[in-house]
Amino acid sequence: MKRLQKKSTLTLLVLMLMLSLSSCGSNSNNTSTSSKTENETTSNEQTSIEETPSETQIVKEDNEGNSALEENADLVNYQTLAPVDGDTIVTITFKDYGDVKLKMFPKEAPLAVENFVTHAKEGYYDGLTMHRVIKDFMIQGGDPSGNGTGGESIWGKEFEDEIVEYLNPIRGALCMANAGPNTNGSQFYIVQASAIDESYLSGLTDIQQEMYRNHAGCPWLTGGYTVFGQVYEGMDVVDTIAKVKTDASTDQPLDSVIIEKITVEE
Fold first, then answer.
1. Which of 5, 73, 116, 142 could form a Cys-Cys staple with 203, CB 3.0–4.6 A?
2. pTM of the model
3. What is the pLDDT of residues 18-37, one digit of tens each?
4. How far is CA 184 from CA 60, 86, 102, 127, 218, in A?
5. What is the mean pLDDT of the chain?
6. Which domains are seen in the chain, by residue range?
7. In what order do the strands lie in the sheet with 173-176?
8. Residues 168, 170, 174, 178: is their CA dihedral positive or negative?
9. What's the pLDDT score for residue 251?
10. How many CB atoms lie within 10 A of CB 42?
């Protein structure tokens, strides 16, 4: 569950507004991200929301000790830059909907990228459904059980989060779903939100605030979920999927949204 970067006086309000986005890793029964939308829950168990300091964002360092902030000239738009030669590209083909193309971030999130890419190459995701869809929030899949209670990593166990300041759950971000810190498995989600609530920018860094103002997304999820890819083509497909009719209690599409295949270009 996302630990909000809000002042303590807003905690009760946040608790009322945010509910779990369920999925599961290899050793979990409730993998989740957080939504501020009312009456959105499919969790078997409600995870508590914790308040965290605003200084929790991590900036990774390279082998020479230089921070990523010093290496990149335009961190605000880094995540949404077009792919270049040498980038790892993934194409998710949704049956009856079309292709969504994403670039990966193996430098910043090597474990998440290796896990997703390996699963994709081995056909793990082929035929699975997007088991939870919420318009103006996200679409989620990657669970062989099809209900948010299954899935595991390529290592057969949960793996740790990889959080950096300049990769965030903005619109089009590909993120790992989890049941709390360091509980990543196979489930993932793509952020579909096309607007932001400015009140959730409080406590975020200048870079993060500008990213959300430029690209929209889900600022209340910041720092709680590994961002390891970004859609650069096919957001119209994501938007179309986000509009499908769903079960009111589970957010599961009434007509299955199926991942036909995932291909990888390296």
1. 5
2. 0.78
3. 434 444 333 443 445 555 54
4. 19, 26, 20, 21, 19
5. 81
6. 8-36+86-265 (2.40.100.10)
7. 132-134, 138-141, 188-191, 173-176, 227-233, 98-104, 89-94, 259-265
8. positive
9. 98
10. 23
Q: What residue type is assigned to position 94 of the chain?
A: F
Q: Which of 188, 170, 215 is nearest to 92 (CA)?
A: 188
The pLDDT of residue 33 = 59
Position 42 pLDDT exceeds 90: no
Q: State the residue for tokens 């608790």.
A: 15
Q: Pick the residue with more confidence: 261 or 48?
A: 261
| 140 contacts 128 by C-beta, under 8 angstroms | no
Question: E strands, the chain, where?
Answer: 19-23, 31-35, 89-94, 98-104, 132-134, 138-141, 173-176, 188-191, 227-233, 259-265
Q: Is residue 225 within 8 Å of residue 21, measured between CB atoms? A: no
Beta bridge partners of 101: 91, 233
- Residue 262 CB coordination number (10 Å): 22
Looking at the predicted structure, is the pLDDT value of residue 186 above 70?
yes
How far is it, in rounded angstroms, from Cα 169 to Cα 79?
10
Residue pointed to by tokens 């049941």: 179
